[in-house]
Each structure stands twice: as structure tokens, then as C-alpha cells.
Amino acid sequence: MYIPLPRAAFLISVAAGLTLAGCSEPQQQAQQAPPPPSVTVAKPTTRSITDFDEYVGRFQAIDEVQIYARVSGYLQTIDFKDGELVKQGELLFTIDPRPFQVALDQAKANLARSQADLDFAQSDLERAQTLIQDKTSTVISKQTFDQRLQSERSARASVAAAQAAVDAAALDLDFTKLSSPVAGRIGDRKVSVGNLVTGGAGGTNTNTLLATVVSLDPIYFEFTYDEASYLRYQQMAKALGQTGSIPVRVGLINEKGFPHEGTLDFVDNQISRETGTIRGRATFKNPDAAFTPGMFGRIEVPSSAPHDALLVPDVAIGTEQTRKFVYVMQPGDAPQAPKITYVTLGRQFDGQRVITSGLKPDDLVVVNGLMRIRPGAQVVGKLEQPANPAAPAAPAAN
User: CA dist 380 to 189, 238, 302, 327, Å?
Assistant: First the structure.
């Protein structure tokens, strides 16, 4: 095929230009290669911490009182609303007092009669004493004097019995008004006005249960723990010289952490043979009635003395199947490939995680930019800027 010379020269120049362009493209790509990504590195934080164990338990009322009728009668009034808070000594129920008032008046009348008999017997005895002291008088015999003395003593005993009857009748009258023996929350009423309630010395099997009151402030929290933990706590308390109450914290099922502080003030005197556990009890203040008897909670008990530990941010920890790791780098500004270091984790504080093993205090850990790290790729580690020293330290998280 014949191609004119000018056109052939043009095609040759175009082909040469494309060839040169193709040769220079790798060079330009090499010159424009992006720099290695940068990550933030920092040394682990050293902090004094205390290890804790966590258990589940229930709140229990310190006082739980079942209100029973102590005298029999018809219920006249109910002076509370179901489920409300009541004060100690607050009136709860009233039993019809009229029969007991009549019995008291009768007892007082019997006392007055017995007192009158005693007064007469005492006067008669005084006259007999005057006559029998006169040796020349034969108006009264020794037997008559003894009879008057016996009458005075019998009258005195009758007065004492009548006085006891008055006291018993007054007590029964007082029992017609039932007050709360403790401050707390009362449950629902078990009877209605107009019903006959049974009281007396028959006991709880025959007496009528009217209501139940439970105290709320303070309140107990009971839980159980195993024998090994019991021995560890005993050794720790002995080593630290702790006596009396141990500070603990509790959290509800809808709360994060353990925001409520209390004291562990009781441990049972024997380990259960059936479960191998022992019962512990802590006391918490409950002024706003946030805790209710029977409510579940989580308690945190100190299990070690304060000790120094290494902490890293939670975001710096990676997961490889079941193992945890962090990226560690050598000091310097040159690009390098981070090294995977497997670690054992402890508990969490303020978004930081305790490292119990696998890390040294001088290691530089990648704390930001983990997503930029690729297998075999190099990165540049930039040292994390220290926090403002004037800023107050955040309290430990629960």
C-alpha cells in the first residue's frame, strides 16, 4: 500500500511520541507515590488500681414487720393508703374501742370498791391494835385481832388484783389503735373496714394479718461467694490490717458501673455444705427509696491491695479470634512496620483497659489510626501530645 511521504512522517512521529510517553509514565508514578500513613503512638499509662470481684445479689429490708391484731374486734378505720411511706408511730388501723372502754370503766369501778374495802380494813385494824396494846383491856381478843389483820391483807391483795385488771383493760384499749413500729413502706391492706379481726395470744396462726411494713433506709444487700474468694478476702484483710467494714459499691441492672457506695459489714459464720458458698451482707443508704427489698443488683468487692498497673486506651486493642493484641513500634521517625504483641486484659477504667501481661512500660503502642495499618506495610509513628497538666484528672470509672 502506498502512503504519501508527509503522512508517513506524521504517523512515525506520533508513534514515537506514544512510546516515549509510555516509558515516562512509571517514572512519574514513582515520583508521585503517596507517603506512608501516620499513626499516633504512646506509652502505656501507669496507674495505681485495686482489683475487684463482681457478684449478683438482692436487696433485703433491715426490718420487716407483719402487723397483726392483738385484740379481737371489728375494724373501724384504715388510716393509710396502700403502698405509701409511713413513719414510725404513725396510726395504721383502729379497732372499735367501745367494748374495751366499757371493760376499762368496769375494772376501774372494781378497783374503787376494793380500795374502799381496804380503807375500812385498815381502820378496823388500827382500832384493834390500839385495844390489844392495852394490857388491862379485855374488849378484844388475840383471835379477833388476827382476823382483822387477815381482812386487811386480803383487802390489800384485792386492790392489787383490781389495779392489774385496770392495767390490762387499759392495755387492751391501747391495742385497738395499731401504729407502725418502724419507718418504711407499707404494703396493701389484708382486711376491709367492718370485718371482724382476731387477736389475743393465739399466735400468728389464728390472729388476723392486717398489713406488712418494710424499712427502706438504710437497706441490706445480700450475696454469696465461693470458698476460694472467702479465703482470698481473709488473707487480704489480714495483710492490710483491715478491721470492721470494707467499702463496696453496687449498681442496679439498668445502671452502668457501680455508682452507689456502701460497706460490707457482715459475713456469715459458716459455709453452706450444699453450695460451698458463704453469705455476705452490705449496708447502703437509701434516702430516696431507690432500692426496694427483693430487687436484684451487682456488687463490686475489692479483691486486692492497691498496686501499679499498665493501661492502654480500649480503642488500641485488636482482636484475633480469641486473642487480644496491640501494635507496638520502635522509637524514631522512620517508617516501620508495627509489631503485633499479644496481651492479657484486665478490667476497664475511664475508657482504658488494664494490661496484666504482654506489655512493658516503655513500649510505644499505637493508640490511634489502627485502620491504616496493613500487613507488611510501613507507617510513621507520631508521639501523642501530653494532656494539659492543669486539667484535673478524671475520676476512675466504675
Answer: 74, 50, 41, 13
